[in-house]
Amino acid sequence: MKGPHNLWRLIRTGATFERTGAMRVVLEAMQAPPRLRVAARILGWPFKWLGLKGDPALPPTTRALTALGPAYIKFGQILSTRPDVVGQDVADQLRVLQDKLAPFPSAVARRMIERELEMPVERLYSEFSEPIAAASIAQVHKARLAETGEEVAVKVLRPRILQAFRTDIDAFYFAAGLIELLLPSTRRLRPRDVIEHFESVVMGELDLRLETASAAEFAANTADDEGFRVPSPYWFLSSRNVMTLGWAEGVALGDNAAIDAAGHDRRELGERVLQLFLRHALRDGFFHADMHQGNLKVASNGDIIAYDFGIMGRIDEYTRRVYAEILYGFIRKDYRRVAEVHFEAGYVPPDRDIDEFARALRTVGEPIFGMDATRISMARLLSYLFEVTERFGMETRTELILLQRTMVVVEGVARSLHPSINIWQVAQPVVESYIRDNVGPRAVLRDLARTAHVLARFGPRLPGLVEDRLIGRGADQHSAQQRESRLWPLAWALLGGGLVGGGMWLGTIL
Fold first, then answer.
1. The dihedral of CA 446, 448, 450, 452: what is its sign?
2. Active site residues
3. 337 with 397, same domain?
């Protein structure tokens, strides 16, 4: 039954895009071939009268997405990072898509809180406000704890939001399959993987226990970051559908007039936002992936306060090193090294010419660095890079989608605070510090130490493992014990010899 249901969802989507005028805008931006245009018109035009009207004051694309509901709004935000898919103009529209909807009644929120926390709201909170913010997934109330009098923010998921998202995500998978079928060239962009990434992000947002855990981990990681604060979560007042955080009092980072009136240095704030993001991504591999102005405040003492931890990014240590080397190469204009890193990481097929790839990267970097600071843009760099990746057969790296998206968003936040910020100059000390500590001899020594630590855990099992590999399991217990006594020295000799040899090699290059 899912097939007909998903087809109907696509028809309603197409009809809404036709009715709002978004269909023409999107197809032109994507430079869609005739087959895709015909399929889209079949899904939309005959059923135009069934489509949703949306808000006429909004641009066509954002009008259609907001009319279609929360899942479409969220998906639009994800697509804002893919100018290679939807075109730069549409990506710019989607980047400013406001994730705001009408709130649901406070009485419903109270009932959900009482059901989740198994206690009347009056016993939990001495004060409980009307909604102060309402987004596509949840809304927030300001409250005061009954026991301590502390001010808190209480986030409550929208009723039946999980079911609504699952229905729309099924339709998105169906649409991705159709696009790959009708337009094989899009398979390089891996539409289904993009939907899978979107699903994993959204499903994480729909369980507030995970967001509470993210808030706690992020707070622990950043506890020593000067000029940055994360509100503490209250675990005993949080559950799957309800989350309670300490109240963050401050000026919205998007309110430049209020920031100026408070006497804060907007240029310094913009630089700090950029450097904090890079530090969290490279140092911790765990970063706030929804770092727009609506989720950031400035405290009276100048600290930047982050909240709303529904979308967090995580990248492994190897990917962090690759990403840092790519950024470092661009900063130093070492395009050959940037090319080598792409090949070493397997981002470019091995049959391609590395010199040609390095030359293509130079055509990306040199125009960017020749611009004045107001025109140097991460969004522009990524747009150029997408063109290069198509020429060299690179596939979409889904593990980097969220990182790239956040970097563009953070750049926009910094530029909104001070338009002439040079993002490369601001990024350079953070990237250089990471490279110094994590790439090169010092990193090799640390990796060897970690390897020795892991091997030490398996010390008692090493003889048996070597025996199983070299000799087999068929001998009797007595002979196995004899072989074990002979293999113990061999195993430890191999381990010790490797560590000593590595140390000697390090000594020659340090």
1. negative
2. 290
3. yes
